[in-house]
Structures are given as structure tokens and as C-alpha cells.
Design goal:
The structure is a homodimer.
Chain A: E1 17-20, E2 29-32, E3 38-39, E4 44-53, E5 56-62, E6 71-72, E7 75-77, H1 84-96, E8 100-111, E9 116-125, E10 136-142, H2 155-170, E11 177-180
Parallel strand pairs in A: 4-9, 8-11
Antiparallel strand pairs in A: 1-2, 2-3, 4-5, 4-7, 5-6, 5-10, 8-9
Bound molecules: zinc ion (2 copies).
């Protein structure tokens, strides 16, 4: 679940929080009972890549929770100070140590249940040699028939891979996919 | 500027915050000196629409800061519990009281300076009658030559409008635009 109602104290003054609907609003917000500050909670972006080397796709075996031991595309929370593309490239470097040429934005997936939007760029791997970081047990290339579909970490990874293989078979390029993921 | 370093107190326990680099991280994070909780600060999504009625585009004159009195496309912060499309539609309803049929995602614009991503869907207006909410002084349709270019509220609004009029003149449809805005 997304982290709504995660405020107990005001991040400005430390005062007690109550969830109230402000006068000019229609939702309950974390409101400080001492200084009156309102703290908003909003969806976060997870940014990553779909790195391709010839016929193969790069997946990373997670070394951390959630989904420890499951396979994922390199991705993580977008940081302040970067674009979606820069974040996607950074995560690919941090998780796989992979050298890539970033391509177009390929998937924008709403994951309402967890308050996230997952955005994946396609990427061309410049080398099949990887240097996984501490969040990754193993970084490995897979042909389509080798993908561990039952061992994928996240729904958005499965959906992104499925769309990519479909588009590749279709032979008409890689249009943007916008989807809502349960 | 984006709201980095906005934590002075822990939102869990109210304890004093220090900005430190956690052991498994490479950036300073708001870290509680009492309970050890780490509070992350990430970019936020602003979602909205480019509502079209025949040859005209809908703009809203802002009744609130920032940019009070300037013209904008209907847009606002994406909320927990909704998709990008749902948020874009909600903002169009709240700010303009406009009835729309939502169309494709059209612009994804990184505004790194303020820690935001602005996402606009194209939309077809079902009626030229509006019912602006309290955040809007006036909702009005503009032909291209009438757009108040010097009175627009945000760079992303200008960029979205420019791309739309260009694409319309080009006659080859409305592909996704991904851009970085200074
Ligand atoms: Zn307070
Ligand atoms: Zn604490």
C-alpha cells in the first residue's frame, strides 16, 4: 500500500499531526496542530531501463527486499536534481554496472495501489559485461524463451517485457505504452 | 527550487533531523537522530490537460499564487489513489469545470529545477461552457493567434502549447513529447 498517513509529527516543528481537510481542499492532509503546516503526500516515480543486447534483455536478481532473489529490470526511485532519463541511467549503472545508450521513453505505468508511477526507457547495451552493485546478486542476459516469468519481482517488469517482445515480433517499432497496473 | 532539506523534525517521532548519508546510500537524507528513521524527498508529478474545442485551446487564469493572474493549462499535483489520467481529468474539472474526453498522453516534461515532472494529456472539450473553481479567475478558449504568450504561468504550458500548434500544422498526428525544461 502507498504510504498515506505516514505523518505523526510535523516535519517543520515536531508538533502533533492530525489528518484534517483544509478549508480550500477536499482531502484529509497531515496538518500540524501546533504551527499549522500542511504536509502533502503524493505518488512517487520509479525510473528504469529495458536494456537490450542483440536479442537479449538484461535482468538483475535482487539482493534486497522487497522481492529479494527475484528478477527485475534496473529501476529505482527518481531523485531530486535529475530527469527521468538521468535517473533511469543512474539506476542502470548502480544496479547492473551496465554501459548503455539510452533510447526513448517506452512505458509509463500507473501503480495506484502503491502510489507509484513506473517509467521505463528502452536502452541499448554497449557491452555484455556487467558490474552489479550491492542491491543486485547477479546481472544476466536472457533470450525471450529464457526469461524467468514466474520469478519476476514486479508486475510492471512483466508488463514491460511482454510489451517489448510483442512489439519486436510486430516489427512496427516501439510506441509509448501507458498502462494501469493492478 | 525544489523542497530539499525541508525536514527539521522526524515525521514519525518528532525527533531532531540531521542530513546524513546512510551506510548503503550515496546522498544525504533526512535522518532522525532519535529513532533513526530516514525520510526521502523525491520529485513530484504535476498532471494536466491540453483541452481542445475545434480550433481553440482552453486556458485558465490563475486565482492563486504562484503566478496569480497568469494563464495556465488546467494542471496540479497528482494525488495518491489516482492514475495520471485520472489526476489530469480531476484537475480539469476542479480548475475549469470543463467536460472533456481524455486523449493520449502528450507531454512528459522534466522540470529539474523545481523537482517536478509535468505530464499533459490531450483532451477533447465536449462543451464550450465552463464552471471555474476557486483556483481560477476565468476559463476561456483561445485561437492560436489569441494565446497570451507573455502572460503564461509556466514554461511547461508554453512548451506544450507550442508543440501542439506545431504538430497541428504538421498534420502528422500528436506523438509523445519528452523534454527537459530549464
Ligand atoms: Zn508544525
Ligand atoms: Zn524519529
Amino acid at each position: 500500500m502507498f504510504q498515506a498517513r505516514r505523518y505523526q509529527h510535523c516535519s517543520t516543528c515536531g508538533g502533533q499531526i492530525e489528518y484534517r481537510i483544509p478549508a480550500d481542499d477536499n482531502r484529509e492532509r497531515a496538518t500540524c496542530t501546533v504551527c499549522g503546516a500542511i504536509h502533502y503526500e503524493n505518488p512517487l516515480n520509479v525510473v528504469g531501463t529495458l536494456p537490450i543486447y542483440g536479442e537479449q534483455v538484461l535482468l538483475c536478481k535482487r539482493a534486497i527486499e522487497p522481492r529479494l532473489g527475484k528478477w527485475t529490470l534496473p529501476a529505482g526511485f527518481m531523485e531530486l536534481g535529475e530527469t527521468i532519463a538521468e535517473g533511469a541511467k543512474r539506476e542502470t549503472d548502480e544496479e547492473a554496472g551496465a554501459q548503455i545508450e539510452l533510447q526513448e521513453l517506452y512505458c509509463v505505468m500507473n501503480v495506484v495501489r502503491v502510489g507509484q508511477v513506473h517509467l521505463f526507457h528502452r536502452a541499448r547495451l554497449l557491452s555484455p559485461v556487467f558490474d552489479p552493485g550491492p542491491e543486485t546478486l547477479e546481472a544476466k542476459l536472457f533470450h525471450e524463451h529464457e526469461v524467468p516469468w514466474d520469478e519476476l519481482a514486479f508486475h510492471t517488469v512483466r508488463e514491460t517485457l511482454q510489451r517489448f517482445f510483442e512489439d519486436r515480433r510486430g516489427g512496427n517499432g516501439y510506441p509509448l505504452h501507458v498502462a494501469d497496473i493492478a
